[in-house]
Amino acid sequence: MLVALGLLGCGEDSSPGQRLVDPRKDPAVNGLTQEPGSRAVLLSTNLGLYRIAPGADRAQRVKSMVVAQGATSPVGRALAVASGDSSTLLGSGHPDDQRGKLPPFLGLMTSTDQGRTWKVRSRIGLADLHSIVPAHDRIYALDTVLDGLLIGDKSGRRWQERLTPGSRMVDLAVDPRDPAYLLASDKHGIFRSDDEGRSWRQIAPGDSPRIAWPANGAAYRADRDGRVSSSSDRGVSWRPLTLVKGRPAWLTALGRRWLLMALDDGSVLESADGGESWETRFEP
User: Fold this and answer.
1) What pLDDT score was predicted for residue 59?
2) Pick from 2, 183, 159: nearest CA to 92
3) Looking at the whole model, is its pTM more than 0.85?
4) Is there a contact between 274 and 257 (Cβ–Cβ < 8 Å)?
5) For site-directed labelling of 121, which of 104, 140, 246, 252 has its Cα 20 to 30 A away?
6) How many domains does the chain have?
7) Of all residues in the chain, what percent carry a pLDDT higher than 70?
8) How many other C-beta atoms lie within 10 A of the C-beta of residue 228?
9) Is the pLDDT of residue 56 over 90?
10) Are 144 and 132 in contact (CB under 8 A)?
């Protein structure tokens, strides 16, 4: 059951009711995380990066710039974003300026000012990262250029390349207790690897599941049909939790039972009880 308890608003350059996503372009949502140093939420869509402050009635458009190879460009559309540590965001994507000042693939980027400026750390021109997961002093990510998995060191400068179980993977999660055990999803279901992505096998069917795996907790999934489930056996079996209205596009764990979900219209839902119930935190 979906419980709507509170609403936040739209953007600095927006008004209530303005779309924060372009439904003609897929994916609609590229990231959802908590802003370093605050309880604000950062929502990355195919129209830009937005900051949703607690209690605000408007969301703020974050004007992001990337600096690399002596050139700068706006960056925000198709920006993958994830929390690195208490002060750093990790990102990847494409320059919004398509005039050739920068390569079309920006590799791994970092930001220490809440996403306003980005610096390229590695693999510029070589990698377009999605589902960036920092864990076990490593960085795991799906790379659409390689059409595979990258596992990097903590600095994000040295990488190992792995295969994925198929093409056009949807999401990635890492066992918080085992750096070699991974879950990955595509439009047909969930796969697991127990050897750092060297081999895979399908363990559960599904509808493009989004996956989140918090420390000291169960793994969670949200399928495109709105079903939310949890697993206490590393993804082998899943317990149904609830059904949300809308189409889940991103799932993020901020704590053992504290979850955020973005729908493909830009709405953000929040659960404080491990996915059993959901509040509407933001609605465009």
Assistant:
1) 82
2) 159
3) yes
4) yes
5) 252
6) 2
7) 94
8) 26
9) no
10) no
Residue 270 in contact with residue 278, Cβ under 8 Å? Answer: yes
Q: What is the pLDDT of residue 16?
A: 52
Sign of CA dihedral 61, 169, 143, 111: positive
Q: Of 113, 143, 162, which residue is a domain's last?
A: 162
Q: Whose CA is closest to 217, among 270, 173, 176, 277? A: 176
Question: Does the structure show a pLDDT above 60 at 197?
Answer: yes
What's the whole-number average pLDDT of the chain? 92
Residue matched to tokens 């460009």: 73
**Which amino acid, one-letter code, is at 255?**
G
Domain match, 241 and 151 both: no
Q: What is the rounded distance in angstroms from the CA atom of residue 208 to the CA atom of residue 269?
A: 18
CA distance 159 to 197: 13
**249-264 b/e with 16+ CB inside 10 Å = b?**
bbbbbbeebbbbbbbb
Distance CA 52, CA 112 (A): 18
In terms of domains, do 138 and 119 share one? yes
**Peptide bond before 27: cis, by omega within 30 degrees of 0?**
yes
CA distance linking residue 73 with residue 42, whole number of Å: 20
Closest to 226 (Cα-Cα) out of 204, 239, 242: 242
- Does the pLDDT of residue 11 top 60, yes or no? no
Q: Which residue has the tokens 């925000």?
A: 76
Tell me the pLDDT tens digit for each residue of 114-131: 999 999 999 999 999 999
Query: What's the CATH code of the domain at 239?
Result: 2.130.10.10
Give the C-alpha separation, 201 to 191, whole Å: 5
Whole-angstrom distance, CA of residue 110 vs CA of residue 67:
11
Task: Kindly report the number of other CB atoms within 10 A of residue 127's CB atom.
Answer: 22
The length of the chain, given as a count of residues: 284
Q: What percent of the chain clears pLDDT 90, i.e. is strictly above it?
A: 85
